[in-house]
Amino acid sequence: MRLPFGGSLARRRIRRALQPDVRARLAALKVRARQRAREDRHPTTGLLSLARFASVDLETTGPNMHEDRIISIGGVAVSGRALLHADAFEVVVRQDRESAVDNILIHQIGGQEQRGGVEPVAALLAFLEYLDGSIAVAFRAEFDATVLKRELHECLGIRVRVRFLDLAAILPALYPDTPNDTLDDWAQHFNLPPIGRHHAIADAYAGGQLLLHAIEQAQRLGLVTAGDLLELQRAQRWLGRRR
Amino acid sequence: MAAPALIIESTLRFLREHPPFSRMARKDLELIATHAQLAYFPVGTTIVDPADGTARNLYIIQRGHVRVRNTAVASDEETRGPGECFPVAALAAGTAGTRHFEATEDVFCYKLSRADFDALRQSSAPFAQFCTEALAGILQQSLGQLRQNFSQRAVEQRTLLEPLKTVIRREPVYCETSTSIVDALRAMQAARLASIAVVDDKHRPVGIFTLTDLRDRVVLPGADLASPVRSVMSGSPGTIDELATAQEALAMMAQRSFHQLMVTREGRLVGVVSERDLFALQRVSMRNILQAIRLAPSIAALKGVTRDIDALTDNLVAQGAAAEPITHTITGLNDALTHRLFDLVLERHDLAGIDWCWLAVGSEGRREQTVATDQDNAILFRCEEGGADVCRPRLIAFARDVNEGLAELGFPLCTGNIMASNPELCLELSEWRAKFAGWIREPTPEALLGANIFFDFRPLMGDLALATELRAWLANLASESRLFVRMLVANALQAEPPLGVIRKFRTDDGDRPGTIDLKSHGTRIFVDAARAFALALGIRETNTSQRLRLAGRRLAIEERQMESTVEAYHYLQMLRLRTQRGDFEPEPEDGEPAKEIPHTARNRVDPYALNELDQRMLKESFRQARSLQTQLEQAFGR
To answer: DSSP 3-state helix, strand, coil percentages of chain B (rounded to 5)?
Structure first.
């Protein structure tokens, strides 16, 4: 039988069951995220050429963002006009069930590796701490944002606000009159060398390079801070709805 | 968290394609991959500027091109592309660089901190070496690498893996089974061979008859010389198809202890290959050739030797010998050939009572002959007063014979008539002096052209002291004439190394677009500069490398620097040798005969068709040419 508010009760149970040190980490992250959001809008610390972004990508068990689970997460930090190899992130999340075979084929993470992955709570926490409140950048970020939000909700029982910047929204705004649509289109447009697609870290690396181009173009158009880029995205979404 | 494996692997994959990283250990490359940043520089951005102070980062270009300008010397400008790194010398020396690096398009670079750079130098020997060499010019190291590379590839591919049909050079000497022993021996004698192949009526090899067989089966048992060779030959000889490789042939000889193999096409005899032929493939020995030259009884016999010289050169190039020994070897052998020719020709001429000296001029005078050189020579003589007009015709007749003999030996007659048989070039000592003095006094363009050819004279035969006397006189006169030196320097600065501003190289648009003339835009710059140095400093040497080394010592230029210049010159010479050898021509299709490379194309190469290492070395060589010109200008330009 399914009780009303059953979901919220379950989440409360999950929250209560969290280890004290996990709770402490989550609290610290919340503070850090607020601080970072302020910094990103500040005209000195938030300068486009100084602010830290994390280009991320999530691979999931399927294309349904409301049901499918995270298989792996990849991230590369972008700061000071460069991708920082030393500030990169990768995690494979342990699955109770192996994902459908065709998904294994796409992401090339075998059942073995999935079962051997990191336990979901630890993986998500590690990822949040890697983000450290920075703006997460992805292509078609709505998908990543939704999946992440849902998984955090389900595993940690909390709502965490992660700021996402969608390359698919800002690139057309920065480079109007280009017919590019998919990540591959943009990669080709900027002549990115492939490092292997459909792998979280590879897509994050490609996204990071697109972001470098985007940042440069944004500066040329007079944008100053990382916060401005988020504003641009908001405006673009608004325009997109009217169009 | 350390960088994810995929990022490291893709970075490693990139690094491994480019020297010096290609030679570095995995753990050192991993240090780069984990610590690097992939930095982005939009078109027009300054990446490194001398004004920034001490160099702080190492940049390895991942994609895009970077323009490098020397802030002190306006003309010093070049472009760098993927795989190249900067500013290595400044980082290694711990100073601010002298050059300005700017992105000419969107550029991505792997960027390393100074601390990582220092750590790499500490832990990686190849990288440390790379840095040291960057300080002195990277050329020598690259050359070593080229030699290693090239010799491995070339020796294996060109010689041992070559099919036998390209190895056998002459028609087989053979007889039928029914031929008498005495006729077989006569055929062997005519061909100067120690063995003869025996074939059946279908031309299949069935035996071999050797001098050993003659001793053991004919002479000692007292066999009848009229009996058929079949009765005394060694049966079932080793046979091998013409498409088998030289290596397979060698293996077969070793296994079954044969000294010769019958080479067949569809079972029929097409040639005989001996162990010696195959060893010669790997090394036509210089000693053998010299001996052959010394023993050659006629010009016709000498002709065969020139083919061996070509083969030797070919092998030396293939084995990756340095250009200097190769050109010296060619010149040395050609000298020996010419000496023997003199002997043969002198038998027909009486030059008694004349002091004469045969001069090699031009490239032969500099001891830098490559394969495709025509003859350049002259005669210097001395006789009693008023006797010149008597002596000259005798010398010219002699010279004509020598010139024609040389032509027969494969040194084409000089189209510009720079030959000893030209009466204007068969001169008495005082006449040469007058001619030279005229050029020095009035250095018109024609005079400089003459000086460029004749001031590189070298005595080859006859009274060598005559040439020494002329050389000493010339060295004094030339170095004291400031106008002449200045014109000579200006002339040497005329040719510009074909370094591009946008692309790496500036290629020609003429009848062979997209190519560079390695002679007129490459080696000539070194040769002309070396000559200017030599004449200005009174150096008597004619060889370009020697001239440069001596000049470097005289002007207190750092020895490493001059050695790099010399290496650059040799690299270009080597590239010419390889071009002449057809290394860069596409393989002919099956059945299509190999195309003869036209004479004018022999010094031309499409730089972008070269592999990346060669492109870099070519660029570095041109860079050295430019710096040599700068040095010349600084020393004597004013």
So the answer is: 55, 15, 30
Decide if pLDDT at A122 tops 80: yes
Quote the pLDDT of residue B149: 46
Partner B contacted by A81 (CB < 8 A): yes
B537 to each of A128, B37, B70, B458, how far by Cα in Å? 74, 52, 29, 18
Instruction: Report the top-level CATH class of A6-242.
Output: alpha beta
Amino acid B159: pLDDT: 52
Q: Taken in order B303, B309, B315, B318, is the CA torsion positive or negative?
A: negative
Predicted local confidence at residue A208, as pLDDT: 95
| Spatial distance between the Cα atoms of B426 and B396, rounded to a whole number of angstroms | 7
Report CA Rg, chain A.
18
Beta pairing partners, B77: B69
For A4, the token pair is 């009303």
Task: Give dist(CA B258, CA B267) in Å, integer.
Answer: 19
Q: Nearest residue of A to residue B64 by CA position?
A: A191
Q: Which of B203, B212, B280, B272 is nearest to B238 (CA)?
A: B272
Q: For residue B522, give the nearest of B624, B375, B449, B369 by alpha carbon.
A: B624
Q: Would you give the end-to-end CA distance of chain A in angstroms?
A: 45
Which of A81, A196, A216 is closest, CB to CB, to B6? A196
Question: Token digits for B436?
Answer: 């030279």
SS3 A179: coil
CA B340, CA B354: separation in Å to the nearest integer? 20
Q: List, edge to edge, every strand of the sheet that includes B426-428.
A: B426-428, B377-382, B355-360, B458-462
* Domain chopping of chain A, boundaries: 6-242
B352: amino acid identity, one letter = A
Nearest to A212 among B33, B40, B111 (CB): B40
Helix locations, B257-322, DSSP H? 275-282, 286-295, 299-318
Structure tokens at B303: 């002709």
Contact of B199 with B174, CB cutoff 8 Å:
yes
pLDDT of B318: 65
pLDDT tens digits along A78-114: 998 899 999 999 999 987 655 555 565 556 566 566 6
**CB-CB contact of B205 with B262 (8 Å):** yes
pLDDT given for residue A210 in this prediction = 94
Poorest-pLDDT segment among A122-126, A237-241, B379-383, B408-412: A237-241
Using the beta-carbon criterion (under 8 Å), do A83 and B106 form an inter-chain contact?
no
All residues at 6 or more sequence positions from A181 whose CB lies less than 8 Å from its CB, including other chains: none
Task: From chain B, pick out residues whose CB is under 8 angstroms from the CB of A48.
Answer: none
Chain B residues with CB under 8 Å of A213 CB are 40, 106
Compute the CA torsion angle B398, B400, B402, B404 (nearest 10 deg): -150
- Mean pLDDT, 10 residues at a time, over chain B (638 residues)? 81 90 91 93 89 88 88 68 87 76 92 92 86 61 47 44 72 90 91 89 90 88 89 87 77 75 88 77 61 80 79 68 70 82 87 87 82 81 79 90 88 86 91 93 90 91 88 90 90 88 75 82 93 92 89 86 87 83 56 47 80 79 90 82
Tell me which residue in A83, A190, A201 faces B6 most closely, judged by beta carbons. A201
Tokens of B515: 């190519």
Q: Is B7 in contact with A205 (Cβ distance < 8 A)?
A: yes
The model's pLDDT over A20-50, given as tens digits with 9 standing for 90+, comes to 888 899 999 999 999 999 999 888 888 888 8
DSSP state, residue B228: B
> In B, which residues are within 8 Å of A198 by CB distance?
none
Peptide bond into A20 cis (omega under 30): no
Smallest Cα distance from B103 to chain A, Å: 14
Quote the mean pLDDT of chain A.
85
Residues contacting B621, CB < 8 A, separation 6+ = B139, B522, B568, B569, B571, B572
Pairing verdict, β B174-176 and B195-199: parallel
